[in-house]
């Protein structure tokens, strides 16, 4: 029974931000893996966790902003590697960073990150990860102590090590992300990254020179004081995971703790902000 999955194939117009919202909502009701497609996405749930009315509470499906159609099918076994191989295309950022799966050819850029993304967030395809990579490329990370909060696949921690950061803590409260980050850290021969499963409560008495937090807006707002308290003087705080319209509420919260906005990157209405302490 554990090997029997139900797959929902969603056609989405426009794809963003509907795909991102849909993944978050489906994850909350038990869907455990997602594959982006040209028309939208495919979501998988184990048959034992599925029930007839599972989509009734999914807000985005009722939204008039998007047109979303879907079909569903029962799949006896899912070969996740083959699914990703079909749907995960390599990307490049500013002709300096390549993000690819092990089966992709190495384009021989300065930083080559190899990940097996599974269902974890952070393949570099999403605007927020892409922009955070751009922020990291801009920074001198040599011998800097770094935190990657909500690390997903570990991609940002891996790039930080490639740029000379050490030591690095990577934290995620999702077990699948935790395990996936461990795998990707090993795959990229990283020696300076420690991966932990947990949340901001793990940061007590910690200190970092650079903090990366690519998480949703509400978690950022809730944990902002914790981040700023463990950021060293003249430290850098990189924030993403929210829209341009959210900048005022984020900026107001960060300003409470004396940090100043230094740089904004925008991509398809998503933003990534750099703050200085």
3D architecture notes:
The protein folds into two domains: 5-84, 2-Layer Sandwich (Alpha-Beta Plaits), CATH 3.30.70; 128-276, 3-Layer(aba) Sandwich (Rossmann fold). It has a seven-stranded mixed beta sheet with strand order 10-9-8-11-12-14-13, sandwiched between helices. Strands 2-3-1-4 form a four-stranded antiparallel beta sheet, with helices on both faces. The longest helix is centred in the middle third of the chain and has 13 residues, at 175-187. It has 277 residues and is of the alpha/beta class. Helix 4 (127-138) runs parallel beside helix 5. Helices cover 28% and strands 32% of the residues.
Which helices and strands appear, and what pairs or packs with what?
Elements: E1 5-13, H1 18-28, E2 33-36, E3 40-46, H2 59-62, E4 67-75, H3 80-87, E5 91-93, E6 97-100, E7 111-114, H4 127-138, E8 146-149, H5 155-162, E9 168-172, H6 175-187, E10 193-197, E11 208-214, H7 217-229, E12 231-243, H8 247-255, E13 260-267, E14 270-276
